[in-house]
Amino acid sequence: MSSASLRRRVCASAITFVALIPPALAEDDPTVLDEISVTATRSERATKDVPQSISVIGSERIEAERMFNIKDALSGTAGVQVDSKNGGSDVRLSIRGAGIKAAYGVREIMVLRDGVPMSDPDSFTRFDFIDTQDIDRIEVAKGPGSIFSTGSAGGTIQILSKSVFDQTANRARIGLGTQGAQNLHMRWGGMIDDTQAVAVTASRRVLENGWRHWNNFETNQAGFKYGRIMPSGGTWDSEISFSNSFTQLPGTMNTSQFNEYRTTGRQNDNSDAFKNSGRDAWTLFGNTRYEQDFGDFTFRPRVYANHWEHYHPVTGVINVSEGNYIFGTDIEGEYRHNLAGMNSTLVGGVTLRADLSLDARKYAYRDYTTAGTRIKSTLSDRQGGLLETQDTKNYLAGVFAQETLTPTDRLSVDLGGRVDRSMFEIDTDKRGEYNYATGNYTWGASQSQATPSFTLVSPKIGASYKLTPTLTAYASLAQGDQIPSSSELTSNPGLTTAQSRNYEIGLKHRSNQWQFDAALYYNPVKDDIVQVYENGQSVYQNAGQTEKKGFDGTLTYRPLPGLSIGGSYTYSDYTYDRFAEITGSGAAKTTTSRAGNRVPLIPMHQYSLFAQYRHDSGLNARIQTISWGEYWMDNANTEKYGGYSFVTNVSLGWDITPEHAIALNIDNVFDQHYATEAKKDTNGSKTFGGAAPRSFLATYTLKF
């Protein structure tokens, strides 16, 4: 797409966005409709009263989506980039540019489920053990400074599951579709007596993805929840879940392969010598949560544990890890009191976590062909000789507190933050490695030990002021420190903590007919951890400083009962203020300044439009379009990818009776063939990830 065409589209979208804003917000229907959020402050508050940009994806939207993965719910959210390599649990997620460097999984973003961290202490998150069919709503808090977030500079995503006490959530669901899609789910629950409730869930999702090679996905999940209302009035919720996930990652395409895909809609090969990447994993997860009021004080302790194993072939090595354990607790309290004549709420507590990865092993591939001495192509994902064993231990201890003051009925002020100490112990026994320069394995024994520690300081101050009963203005200053992940430290032990500081102002409008959010921010990141992509290898280094300037806007208008229309727009102006990128290798290794260049992989403009309708007869429909503008493919800013426009998803449904419902989801309606991600390495090689073609999923749901 030409830049002129893109500008026309952006201008047209912006004009539409602005035209929908009512001429006099203060004169709108003062009936305020708003979602309640617990993510930004650990205390229930309407989103309009929180001095931070927050997006809430409600149950109605989630119910209308396929929900094969978290991408289905988050697509079109202002400030969020999200996509998937295989349509399953593999999700690439970025909030305001944070997390864009992750090769697999999610980094720099704290993910929680019902207040329990899903992210490791170094911020790495796997979504394969989250049952997406058991989600009630999702909250996205953007930017650093959340008192939930430990070592996450990008923001916080809170996934809230269906309550064990919710007797309306029982259902059986059968979904079948193209590309071998299966989406099966059952949830049964109820009150055992007046004080006890149980719920059992089971889900199975399958995608064969026949449009490209090595792209199957299958997951099976089961969970049990128990809830009890205590004689004192408190509640006790406990859960245990099991999941296994089998994921084939199809790899990226070179330019000729990508051109073939654009013509045919099929990916017959990938550009990588390692053609059998994937991740097969099983996870056992448990947690228990208690909440009790003692007058003006509420006590909320949480305890959780996680054990997982995986077989994870990637470029050069096969990771086999069976001894992975996470243990943690949050001991939290909320105190409602009067401070100097002001109604106030104090939330505070401590966090303790341990992440143990014991006897993790790296193996060479067993089956492959060579061209000369270089590995040309793997033939399977079976393991060969042992390259390395490693024990990694990460311990985290933190304290957090936030005071919310209300000097007047119109003004509220948040003062708080958290301090965490993260301590690593990494012991490595190396016998060999994959050498990217030679393209084959080299053998030689060595041992190493690293014990880096990081102190993370995340202060925040924010204020919200009600200009009218429906319109609120806010301002905030927040900071978050981002620690390197254990894998990043292994590749570059000299990495330091990145410091993200965010200055933000915004407006929020809530009424029966209109909902509007706008946030303008400036976010300098000192010692940003950036990805350098060279010869198929991702290496990491600290940039001196990255400057992020942006705007997030979301608008919803309800012109008629049952009808909502609206959209979102994201402007991202991200540049390197100081960054000397390492280029070349061996004797030719040098550094090249990228100061003034734009951060790659992040379009300056993103926008989404939607319309949804629900009739009293039970008929409902939703249509949404997603557009990404052009972006640079490399740190050197030598080439751009043109992005994509108006990728459209449609859902149609009919609640035939209160018990019976049918639905049809059509993704990528116009069957557009575009890249979900386009990269260029320091040697000029380009790679492209292909988007899934048009797909259909038909679903029948029985509610009981």
UniProtKB/TrEMBL annotation:
Name recorded for this polypeptide: TonB-dependent receptor
Subcellular localization(s) per the UniProt record: Cell outer membrane
Similarity comment: Belongs to the TonB-dependent receptor family.
Transmembrane portions of the chain: none
PROSITE patterns assigned: TONB_DEPENDENT_REC_2, TONB_DEPENDENT_REC_3
The organism of origin for this protein: Magnetospirillum sulfuroxidans
Matches recorded under CDD domains: ligand_gated_channel
Residue ranges of domain TonB-dependent receptor-like beta-barrel in the record: 225-669
Sequence motif: TonB C-terminal box, positions: 687-704
Signal peptide: 1-26
Membrane topology term: Multi-pass membrane protein
Stretches assigned to the TonB-dependent receptor plug domain: 48-156
Keywords annotated in UniProt: Cell outer membrane, Ion transport, Iron, Iron transport, Membrane, Receptor, Signal, TonB box, Transmembrane, Transmembrane beta strand, Transport
